[in-house]
C-alpha cells in the first residue's frame, strides 16, 4: 500500500493559484458593477465604509490605466469584507430594476390599448383592477384621444399613464 495516497486529503490543500486568481477577478467584477451604479443606488446598499469610499473614488478618476489599477484596489478591498452579502444586495437591486421595467412596459401597453379605444381592453383593465375610478379613467382616455387626433402635445396621455401606473402599483 502506498501511504501517500492514504494521507492525501484534497480538502486540506490550499487553493491553487488559478483558483485565487478567479476569485480575485470575480471580486473585481463585483466592484466594477458597484462602480456602474448611480449614487442613489450605491447609497441604498449596505456597504462597508471602505468599499463605499473606494467605489465613490472611482467616479472621480478619468484616466483609463488609473481606473484599471483602482479596480484592482477595489478587488483587494473586497477581499476583506463579506462579498457574498454585497453580491446578494446587488442581485436584489437588479431584480427590482427588472421588475420596474416590466411594470412600466405593462402600463405602457395598457395605455396604448386604451388610447386606441379598445373597449375590450378597458373592460379587462377594470376587471383586473377593480379599485379604478372608471369615470376618471374614461375622461382621461377621451381627452388623450382628442389630443392625439389633433396632434397636440401628449399631456393627457402622460396623465393617463401616471394614473394607470398608480392603479397598478396600488393593487400590488
Automatic annotation (TrEMBL):
It comes from the Bacteria. The keyword Lipid metabolism does not apply. CDD domains: YjgA-like. It is found in: Cytoplasm. InterPro entries: DarP, DarP_sf. Its main location: cytoplasm. Keywords: Cytoplasm, Ribosome biogenesis, RNA-binding, rRNA-binding. It holds the Pfam family DarP. Member of a network of 50S ribosomal subunit biogenesis factors which assembles along the 30S-50S interface, preventing incorrect 23S rRNA structures from forming. Promotes peptidyl transferase center (PTC) maturation. HAMAP family: DarP. Belongs to the DarP family. This is Dual-action ribosomal maturation protein DarP. It comes from Gilvimarinus gilvus. The lineage of its organism: Bacteria, Pseudomonadati, Pseudomonadota, Gammaproteobacteria, Cellvibrionales. The gene is yjgA.
Amino acid at each position: 500500500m502506498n501511504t501517500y495516497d492514504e494521507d492525501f486529503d484534497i480538502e486540506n490543500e490550499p487553493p491553487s493559484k488559478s483558483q485565487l486568481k478567479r476569485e480575485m477577478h470575480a471580486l473585481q467584477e463585483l466592484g466594477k458593477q458597484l462602480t456602474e451604479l448611480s449614487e442613489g443606488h450605491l447609497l441604498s446598499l449596505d456597504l462597508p465604509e471602505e468599499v463605499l469610499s473606494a467605489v465613490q473614488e472611482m467616479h472621480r478618476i478619468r484616466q483609463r490605466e488609473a481606473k484599471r489599477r483602482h479596480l484592482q484596489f477595489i478587488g483587494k478591498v473586497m477581499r476583506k469584507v463579506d462579498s457574498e452579502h454585497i453580491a446578494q444586495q446587488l442581485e436584489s437591486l437588479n431584480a427590482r430594476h427588472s421588475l420596474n421595467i416590466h411594470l412600466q412596459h405593462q402600463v405602457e401597453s395598457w395605455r396604448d390599448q386604451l388610447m386606441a379605444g379598445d373597449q375590450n381592453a378597458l373592460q379587462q383593465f377594470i376587471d383586473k383592477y377593480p379599485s379604478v375610478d372608471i369615470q376618471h379613467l374614461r375622461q382621461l382616455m377621451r381627452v388623450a384621444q382628442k389630443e392625439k387626433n389633433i396632434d397636440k402635445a401628449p399631456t393627457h396621455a402622460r396623465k393617463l399613464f401616471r394614473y394607470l401606473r398608480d392603479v397598478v402599483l396600488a393593487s400590488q
